[in-house]
Design a protein that fits this description.
- The protein is mostly helical.
- The chain is built from two helices and no strands.
- 6% of the residues are buried.
């Protein structure tokens, strides 16, 4: 579906990518036992500190990627809605005063 239009209500690869970009840093921060250590040291800082500082930068990059993915997906959804034929009047099943 690359480059095409996207019907509303469909989970697209771009939306899945955006969700993973948001979820990955959240899981990385919550999983404290994976980085709760003093070694190795980098520039005199224990692993615990430089991991968190690195995670700030990585999170920023992933949030920008998620934003761009959602923006592209929304544009495709708008194109789909604009290209879809308009629903005929009176499709609700009957006349209002009858």
């Amino acid at each position: 579906m690359a480059g095409g239009t996207t019907p509303p209500g469909m989970i697209t690869p771009l939306r899945l990518f955006a969700a993973l970009c948001i979820l990955a840093p959240t899981v990385a921060v919550i999983a404290v036992p994976t980085y709760n250590t003093a070694t190795p040291k980098l520039g005199g800082f224990p692993f615990f500190y430089w991991y968190q500082l690195l995670l700030v930068v990585v999170t920023g990059i992933l949030m920008v990627a998620a934003y761009w993915a959602m923006k592209i997906d929304e544009r495709r959804r708008k194109e789909f809605r604009a290209a879809a034929p308009a629903e005929p009047a009176g499709r609700d099943g009957g006349e209002a005063g009858a």
